[in-house]
Specification:
The mean pLDDT is about 90. The radius of gyration is 29 Å and the shape is elongated. A five-stranded mixed beta sheet has the order 3-2-1-4-5. Helices cover about 45% and strands about 15% of the residues. The two termini are about 50 Å apart. It is an alpha/beta fold and about 375 residues long.
Length: about 375
């Protein structure tokens, strides 16, 4: 018996350009780029089983997307595809919207909105929304990033991650940092408490009642935190905090401090104090790489659980709440689990740099 003949895939120049652009686009949804690869290979005359073997998928999967493309073109490759009502937007128009969203901006704005793209393209708001959703486009969103330019970045990552994943025997590893200029904020009007069907409400305006700075040290083995608040955050306060840490350390074990390159950590006074304690070892994080210091994760918890929605009429109230948070945390501390090796982190940074360079090169072209 002769099997069913595979549908013949014929690409127009616009189709081919669009499919190839989606394969190259680093932020294209993985599912969509895989489907585009399947169609491109099918268009070369390959059988579905050969395409499936090359891409590591099932032959039925290739057959499904081959048929969808032959029947409905590019729109058939999206997850929002539904058989039924005849299409009213051509593949070329879809490709044009995607291309313009990625590579152009309106005259009066930094990015497209659904309203502006609809007006410019002559399509409805709903159609633009569906196209953007199908291709994972979110022009209204933007994220920030900063790569460390520290010439010793690799060495420092290997050193600190090595401490996390294989700490020295009978040694204490502390992640140290300060959260400076924490504001004691009160709302101009009383906070309206949550009620059934109504979320808590507060005014967007506030009253400043002073600031405090928190120095904290996180024990990576136990998760316990040593913390103290100060009015200022100079080397004098940092030295006092180091003395507080020293007072709580048992005799015998070496102490390893992970901390950033802030100026107060490197003054002659601090260096002299550390030099008199040869069993204390300092590991500086790379510049612009606070993510590698585990105490930053604890600071994030403090902010989310206590500071972000707290109401404080004085710095005394603020410091009392911070101290209460530390005390509660230390009643049942849980250490964070570091899971990425130095090699994995460095490989991820390398991939990010390569993608960034490729995007920059593509945009210039």
């Amino acid at each position: 018996m002769v099997g069913r003949q595979a549908a013949l895939v014929v690409l127009s120049e616009a189709d081919r350009n669009f499919l190839e652009s989606q394969v190259r686009r680093h932020k294209a949804p993985r599912s969509l780029s895989d489907r585009c690869r399947m169609v491109l290979l099918c268009a070369q005359g390959l059988q579905s089983k050969d395409v499936a073997e090359r891409l590591g998928v099932h032959e039925h999967t290739v057959g499904k997307w081959r048929r969808r493309f032959v029947q409905d073109g590019i729109e058939g490759l999206t997850d929002e595809y539904r058989a039924g009502r005849p299409r009213t937007v051509s593949d070329a128009k879809v490709a044009e919207v995607v291309e313009r969203t990625l590579n152009t901006t309106p005259r009066d704005a930094t990015h497209w909105s659904i309203r502006s793209m609809a007006a410019d393209s002559g399509l409805s708001h709903t159609t633009i929304r569906r196209i953007w959703t199908a291709f994972g486009l979110q022009p209204h969103r933007a994220e920030t990033f900063k790569l460390s330019s520290d010439p010793l970045f690799v060495d420092k990552v290997q050193d600190i991650v090595g401490l996390y994943m294989a700490p020295p025997d009978r040694a204490i590893v502390l992640c140290v940092d300060e959260k400076s200029q924490i504001q004691a904020l009160d709302r101009e009007q009383p906070v309206l408490p949550m009620a059934p069907g109504v979320v808590e409400r507060r005014t967007h305006t506030y009253v400043r009642n002073g600031t405090t700075s928190l120095f904290a040290a996180l024990d990576i083995a136990t998760g316990a935190v040593i913390g103290h608040c100060y009015k200022r955050h100079r080397a004098t306060e940092f030295l006092d905090f180091l003395k507080r840490i020293d007072a709580e350390m048992p005799d015998g074990p070496d102490v390893h401090l992970v901390m950033d390159n802030y100026a107060t950590h490197k003054t002659p006074k601090i260096k002299a104090w550390l030099a008199r304690r040869p069993h204390w070892h300092v590991h500086f994080t790379p510049t612009s790489a606070s993510w590698i210091n585990q105490v930053e994760r604890w600071f994030a918890e403090l902010t989310r659980k206590q500071l972000q929605r707290g109401v404080h009429r004085s710095t005394a109230e603020l410091e009392a709440d911070i101290n209460a948070f530390i005390e509660s945390h230390n009643e049942n501390p849980t250490p964070y689990k570091w899971v990425k090796s130095a090699d994995q982190i460095l490989a991820a940074v390398k991939r990010f740099c390569q993608k960034t360079m490729n995007r920059t090169s593509d945009s210039r072209d």
